[in-house]
Write a structure and sequence with these properties.
Length: 87
């Protein structure tokens, strides 16, 4: 019998925060650090997440990325975008 639901622990939250972000087309969430692991979820839009290690990933609606602590990163919006940051 197949289950219609699935759960998966992504990481254990350290700060207990959920932050809603809106980045308009051709704008940037400037370079910064997260002191704790975090999860960035693209709710709507298209953004490019980049980090100081040379990583670059495009996030579309429904995509997410785990953010490593103490790694500089930034986000560029290709179109108007809404994101959730979970710490």
């Amino acid at each position: 019998m197949s289950s219609s639901k699935q759960t998966n622990m992504m990481f254990s939250a350290k700060e207990g925060k959920v932050i809603s972000l809106q980045i308009l087309k051709d704008n940037q969430l400037k370079e910064h650090l997260s002191m704790v692991p975090a999860l960035l979820v693209c709710v709507k839009g298209e953004v490019v997440f980049e980090d100081e290690k040379g990583g670059s990933i495009t996030l579309l609606s429904g995509d997410y990325i785990n953010i490593q602590p103490n790694v500089k990163h930034w986000v560029n919006a290709k179109i108007d975008s809404n994101l959730l940051l979970i710490k």
